[in-house]
Amino acid sequence: MRILSGIQPTGSIHIGSYSGAISQWKELQQIGECIFFIADLHALTVPQEPDTFSKQVLNTAAELLAAGMDPEKCIIFIQSEIKEHTELSWYLNTITPLGELTRMTQFKEKSQQFKNNINAGLLTYPILQAADILLYQTDSVPVGKDQKQHLELAKIIARKFNQKYGKVFKVPEALLLETGAKIMALNNPKKKMSKSSPAGCLYLFDEPDIIRKKVMSAVTDPGKSIKYDPVKKPGIANLLTVYSLFAGKPISQIEKKFGKKGYAEFKKSLADLLILKLEPYRRKKKELQTREVYVREILTQGRKRAEIIAQTTIKDVRKKMGLI
Fold first, then answer.
1. Which of 33, 103, 216, 266 has its CB surrounded by the most CB atoms within 10 Å?
2. How confident is the model at residue 176 (pLDDT cuts 50, 70, 90)?
3. Which of 39, 23, 187 has the alpha carbon at shortest distance from 121?
4. Is residue 199 part of a domain?
5. Mind giving me the DSSP string for 206-230?
């Protein structure tokens, strides 16, 4: 089973994205042929600083490796280094109905968020995403609920191309990620933790003093009881979720442990736990940051392996479409 997914180099990996994606990628690379790429082309739909963008890309690569991606068990590469992504994206543009793009929920949301930069890339983003998937004859794509609509479009495009030109693409299936450990923002437990709001993020590679400061200042709720109730006590419910995730224990057991203790003691214990559990990731990233040549070599080898698949697909596509 060939599995593909990508991550944008738009900031450090936080514990929400680790829980929702990266930790599950680690498990998937043990059971399937996994292809993971750094989606730098997708990141260009919002303004990036050219002087630092390449460093962000390399930083994301180092973080993926530090978080447990094993180049012996998966392919890791940079999207823009394989030209077949953009080539296939154009071919798919010519068969994708405009109406399918304008109804995309993410386009509507991004258009509101970036009102001064509603570029064509925001609209055609899902076609490039479809090209990413179809280029590698992908069987399964790990997705959360917010990306399921884009995968459905990729399936529509694959079927339409196959019907119009002849069978080329596999029609991918969704591999729905677990949603039980959804992490909310520390400063607003009613919103999902997001890179777009750094103040509410706890990053996988934060230093111990930063972790402690963020946890101790996290929003809680009226009262003193440490009880899981996402409606009445969203702040404590969120912190209990984080504790459960990194302790590997059910929330009920944590509630019992802190049942007669206050918020301060609970937060102190959570901070201590996170500092302990995140130390190996932080240490590994620091090591990799001193070995840039090694990280680049992994990306180069990943590109070479991915190119073999991508070039085979494009050759077939061009032949079917009648291109010389």
1. 266
2. confident
3. 39
4. no
5. --HHHHHHHHHTS---SSS----BT
Q: Which of 73, 195, 277, 284 is catalytic?
A: 195
CA distance 277 to 229: 25
Asked if residue 176 and residue 27 are part of one domain, the reply reads: yes
SS3 308: helix
Range of 174's domain? 2-181+292-321
Beta pairing partners, 203:
14
| Entry pTM | 0.89
110 is catalytic: yes
**Nearest CA to 80 among 121, 44, 50, 39?**
39
State the catalytic residue, choosing from 160, 170, 192, 277.
Answer: 192
* Residues 154, 133: Cα–Cα separation, whole Å: 8
Answer for the pair 133, 148: CB distance below 8 angstroms, yes or no. Answer: no
End-to-end CA distance of the chain: 32
Pick the catalytic residue from 110, 155, 214, 267.
110
Question: pLDDT, tens digit, for every residue of 116-164?
Answer: 777 888 889 999 999 999 999 999 998 876 678 889 999 999 999 999 9
Strand partners, 76: 36
The model's confidence at residue 177, banded by pLDDT at 50, 70 and 90, is: low
Tokens of 227: 């009880």
User: Please, which residues bridge with residue 140 across strands?
Assistant: 3, 173
Give yes or no: 192 in active site. Answer: yes
Domain CATH for 231: 1.10.240.10
- In degrees to the nearest 10, what's the CA dihedral of 106, 178, 42, 71? 180
The angle at the Cα of 193, spanning 109 to 173, to the nearest 5 degrees, equals: 65
CATH code of the domain in which 76 resides: 3.40.50.620
CB distance 80 to 305 below 8 Å = no
Task: Indicate the helix (H) or strand (E) that contains 64.
Answer: helix 50-66
